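Course assignment 3, question 2. Fill in each field.
Student: A.L.
Task: Predict the tertiary structure for the chain below.
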Amino acid sequence: MANALEQAIREKTARVGVIGLGYVGLPLISAFVDAGFRTIGFDVDPQKVEALNAGRSYIKHVASEKVRSWLDAGRFDATADMNRLSEADCLLICVPTPLTESRDPDLQFVEGTARAIAAALRPGQLVVLESTTYPTTTRDVVLPILAQSGLQCGSDFFLAYSPEREDPGNPHFSAARIPKVVGGIDERSRDLAAALYEQAIVTVVPVSSAEVAEACKILENTYRAVNIALVNELKVLFDRMGIDVWEVIEAAKTKPFGFQAFYPGPGLGGHCIPIDPFYLTWLARKQGLNTRFIELAGEVNSRMPEYVILRLMEFLNERAKPLKGSRICVLGLAYKKDVDDPRESPAAVLIELLLKHGAIVTYNDPHIPRMPRMRRHQLPPMESQELTPEFLRAQDCVLIATDHSAYDYEFIVRHAPLILDTRNATRNVRVGREKIRKA
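Answer field:
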C-alpha cells in the first residue's frame, strides 16, 4: 500500500482532496494544482461549491481567474458530497477549530470530518490533519474515529499532522512558499506526508511525531500572542505617561539583535492567535498545571477593545460629546490589513461595544462590502459606507480599527472631525494632527 501510494505521489498521479475550502484550504488547492496534481475540494457549504465550480473565488488572494484555470485544465472540481472522499488518494483536513463559550477546544468540525472519512476510507489513502489544535488530537481524537473503518493505520491507511501556516495578505509567502512541518502517527505515515508536500511546498520539515508538529503550531502562535500582549500592556502604560509607544518600538527595533518588533492594536484577530494559546491552557489544566503567563497574555489582549472604547469616550468628552448618540464610523472590519477575512476581528467587538453604549455605528471596509454572519457576534445587517467628504463630516469620530493600504488617510483626516487611530495608520499625515488621537 505505502509503496504504491508513494509512487503515485512522486509521479503526481495521486489525487489530492482538501476538506474545507476556506482561507487555508483554497490556497492549498492552488499549491497542489500549480505543482501538477489533480485535486478535489470538499466543503459543506453548497454556495462555496457552486461558486468554485462556476469559476468564482470568494477569497481575495485567490483570484477567480486562477480558479477558472484549474477548471479549464481539468485539475479541480468542488463538491459537497462526502461520499466522494474515496476518490482522493490523499485527504487534507482544513476545517475550523474554534473555542467553546468556556474557551475549551471545540473539535466538532474535526470529529465530523473524521467520521465522514471513516465512512469512505479505503486501503491506500493518506489522511493529514492541518487544522490548528492541541497536541495529541491526531492520535487521540482522529485516529480512533478512522480506526472504526476496520482498517489499520500504518499498513492500510496513513495518518499525519501538518499545521497550516497561511498568512493572508502577505504577497511574499503563498502556501507553496511557506515551509511545512510534518509529523506522523508512525514513521511511514510521516514519510508519505512529507513526500506529498515536497511536491508542492518549498521546504518540508519532518519531525518525530504528530504531537511535535501540533505543539509547534501552538508555540508559534502563543509566542506572538504573548509578545503582542506585552506591547499592548506597555501601550496602556505609555499612554498614561504621554509617551508614544509606536515611536518607542521604532526606536527599539533599530537594535540589530535581541529584539523583534511587535505592535499594539485594538485586540487580537484571525483564526489562530486569539484561539490557539487557549488550547494550551486547556491542555495544561488537564495535566494539572497552570499556564499563568499565557492566561495573563490572553487577559491583556482581550481587554484591548474596552480600552479603545474608554479612550474614545475620553476623546469625545474633551469636545463635550457623550458616546451615546454619537456617530462613529469604524474603518476596517477585517482582522488585519489588506485582507477580506473578518474572523475573530477586534472590529466586531468594537462595534458591539459601541452599539451597547448607544452610539450610531457605521463601518467601511473596501474588502468586505457587507457585514457577514459571525459565529461569536450578533451584529445587525450593515453595508460598507462610501467615504465621501459629506459622510466623513457627518461623523462625530472615525475609529481606525484596520489599517488597509487602500485608505487615503490624508483625505480622511481632512474631512473627519475626529480620528481615533488604533493602528498608527495616520503617522505620515502632517495636516490636521490636532484632530487625531492614538489609542
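Instructor remarks: The chain has a mean pLDDT of 93. The chain has 14 helices and 13 strands.
Grade: pending
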